[in-house]
Amino acid sequence: MGDTKTRTPARRAKTRAAQPEPETLVAYYRQMLLIRRFEERAARAYTEAKIGGYCHLNLGEEATVTGLMAALQPRDYLFTNYREHGYALARGIDARRVMAELYGRSTGVSKGWGGSMHMFDLESRLLGGYGIVGGQLPLATGAALAVNYKGGDEVVMCQMGDGTTNIGAFHESLNMAALWDLPIVFVVINNGLGMGTTVEASSAEPELYRRASAYRMESARVDGTDVVAVRDAAQAAVERARRESKPFLLETTSPRLRGHSVVDPARYRTAEEKEALKEADPLAHFGLTLEEAGILDAEARTKLDAEVKAEVDDAAAFADDSPHPDVSTLFDYTYATPVRGVPRRLPADPVF
Amino acid sequence: MATMTYRQALRDTLRDEMLRDENVFVMGEEIGVFEGSYKITEGLLKEFGPKRVRDTPIAEEGFVGAAIGAAMLGLRPVVEIMTINFSLLALDQIVNHAAKIYGMFGGQCSVPMVIRTPGGGGQQLGATHSQNVELFYSFIPGLKVLAPSTPAEASSMLRAAIRDDDPVLFLENLALYNTRGEVPDDLEPAEIGRAAVTRPGTDVTIIAYSRMAHVAAEAADKLATDGISAEIVDLRSLRPLDRETVVESVRRTGCAVVAEDDWLTYGIGAEIAATIQEGAFDHLDAPVRRVAMAEVPLPYSKPLELAALPSAESLVTAVRDTVRATGR
Ligand SMILES: Cc1ncc(C[n+]2csc(CCOP(=O)(O)OP(=O)(O)O)c2C)c(N)n1
Ligand SMILES: [Mg+2]
């Protein structure tokens, strides 16, 4: 399993936690598989025009997503960017509701108001996928401030991409989080690219986890294709945040197996680069590891695959059968506190 | 009943609300140790401590976003942005998050926060520090935008804003902080979204808000000596907009002039004029006029600044022309 590179100005890296039980590893594998098949199904539905808008997939990030979510307690809060289908699933939200959101149906996690980029679920404390690059960072920082204000022991995890470390909100948020000792773990999913721009072409310090030193914040880089390594690194950061109310910056590295979004053919990648991606597939890699360890053989994997595929097909069927939101609900969510004078006009309606 | 400044009304109300609800806290640049650039938060740090009076770094996007995040978890932050000019740095968080979170997530989470910020030219602060860009926020569904013009309104409207579950942009004005007025004891929170006829009249309606409500009052006094009876509608809420009160007045007076402190083209007055033509077309005896700031980056030079800003004199001229145009 991959190693964790830690940069700890004030503290030494933690020793590695014990190897998980076989059942746990199988559960991780299944989770990764669900994300993989869900995203593949979403891509298909997109080409069938069942899904609109932008659609960014977690393909290649399955181990990262699974490891990160395994490190959170149910009471912890999660903020993500727009590439969040897998997080919603791994946070325990029913695949049906996630798919229904992609289909824009009223049974979706955000009742069809958010779409692919804006999944929100109070119960699982997924406090939003956000489509504005970096937009979630100040929000997550404020959520951590609220946790401290109320004297709670929840931790906030704030996910983002590598490209996001270059936006002003990144600096402002990390600075405040460190200044105010907030219980938040910032996670940079370094998939090497922001759309078509490489990390090296956009970041003057391409070892992104090192940026934390500007805020005297501890940080680490971990192999994002290794689910257990991700979980352990994230757990150490999360539990330290809980215990000491200190922020952390965790960088995970993983390949982006396809284009930026479903419609991106990624022509900016060379044939060799595309070929190398096959080698880098974390799901295939984990499958082999489990086989070699005698935990899960090919037959068992095939069985799991069938199970997961059925779950995903069921989710798509559920989404397809679900109703669209009624047009009469168009004005339901403009304000939480009712107020006079709110326009409830359709485009051709007169003002008076 | 006490007579006090607009500044003190704001400060006292903040303090009352912090005493009433411990989820209410204030944050912003220089609001604690420095007691506020305009001293609205004077004494609050001493009384409530740094947890509830949080000085922030100079990071408008960051701390406004953080207030939104805190509000999502049920706190009621009152953020001060030093002047509305600097709110542009936080525009993304205000427009893309504060205003969107309730709707975009299907009504699952509200954002009960207030952003207090003063607008206003006329202080020789130059182009970047003298703007009135409340229009940007008034344009956005999901935000509520309040613009009180008196100490009593400042108090009752701030109270309402803090208790409201939606994000409220609370527009103050540099020129109003030292104005005085009576503030009743035990003032109830105002009803958001309601304009007021602050001076009844019969010949013409002047529609104004914030500082321009005072300019309108001054103009109405002058017009009265000419025998012109002007009715003043103080909008008080820019979103939602109380169109009925505006239109109801114009239906009686038959003509209208909008007094606004922002720029004319695409400004607040354009929306009011459109409202009047749709709601009072048959009652109009003259075209709706707008009196607004000259459309230039506001200069530092005092004579240039004075020439650019709408004044009682300019309003009087526009009203006289309008009344004359009715041919009455
Ligand atoms: C403020 C803003 N600017 C630009 C965009 C367009 N955009 C969407 S995703 C993206 C790349 C982000 O890359 P990264 O942070 O690495 O995340 P990844 O997509 O790789 O997960 C860009 C530029 C946006 N959504 N928001
Ligand atoms: Mg990336």
Automatic annotation (TrEMBL), chain A:
Pfam families the record matches: E1_dh
Limits of the Dehydrogenase E1 component domain: 31-327
SUPFAM superfamilies membership: Thiamin diphosphate-binding fold (THDP-binding)
Alphabetical UniProt keywords: Oxidoreductase, Pyruvate, Thiamine pyrophosphate
Cofactor(s) named in the record: thiamine diphosphate
Catalyzed chemical reaction(s): N(6)-[(R)-lipoyl]-L-lysyl-[protein] + pyruvate + H(+) = N(6)-[(R)-S(8)-acetyldihydrolipoyl]-L-lysyl-[protein] + CO2
Top enzyme class: oxidoreductase
Leader sequence residues: none
Superkingdom classification of source: Bacteria
EC id: 1.2.4.1
Matches recorded under CDD domains: TPP_E1_PDC_ADC_BCADC (cd02000)
Function: The pyruvate dehydrogenase complex catalyzes the overall conversion of pyruvate to acetyl-CoA and CO(2).
Subunit structure: Heterodimer of an alpha and a beta chain.
Stated name of the protein: Pyruvate dehydrogenase E1 component subunit alpha
Organism: Actinoallomurus spadix
From TrEMBL, chain B:
Transketolase-like pyrimidine-binding domain mapped to chain residues: 4-179
Signal sequence extent: none
SUPFAM superfamilies according to UniProt: Thiamin diphosphate-binding fold (THDP-binding), TK C-terminal domain-like
Domain of life, source organism: Bacteria
Cross-referenced InterPro entries: THDP-binding (IPR029061), Transketo_C/PFOR_II (IPR009014), Transketolase-like_Pyr-bd (IPR005475), Transketolase_C (IPR033248)
SMART domains: Transket_pyr (SM00861)
Pfam families reported in the protein's UniProt record: Transket_pyr, Transketolase_C
Keywords noted in UniProt: Oxidoreductase, Pyruvate, Thiamine pyrophosphate
Cofactor(s) of this protein: thiamine diphosphate
NCBIfam families, per database record: PRK09212.1 (NF006667)
Protein name: Pyruvate dehydrogenase complex E1 component subunit beta
